[in-house]
Design brief:
mainly alpha
Length: about 110
Amino acid sequence: MYDFAVVALLALAVVKLVDFVTDNLGDLSKMRSVLTFVAGIGVAWLLDYSLFAGWDIPIRDADMGTIVTGFVIAGMTVPWRALFSWLTHDRATMDETLGEHHPLRSAA
């Protein structure tokens, strides 16, 4: 059960990290899905975290378990985005956005 909570909270962190990066580093909004997968796999790889090890499921290659866990983390970002969309009543205007975002810095 704790492993599910860890994956859900890592997915929340990935959602917010990707939102921050796409809002503040140029025009990356069209790469949001790719960045989500890269961040999900990256966070699982950096933490060396595998759901298979947490649930005592033997697999042949431990690195593949970490990569699949990264895909699970990336997949768990979809419910977070749906929840935020429902709470704010913003509808997606582009690829997986939560409405219009405004960067921290404004171009003068």
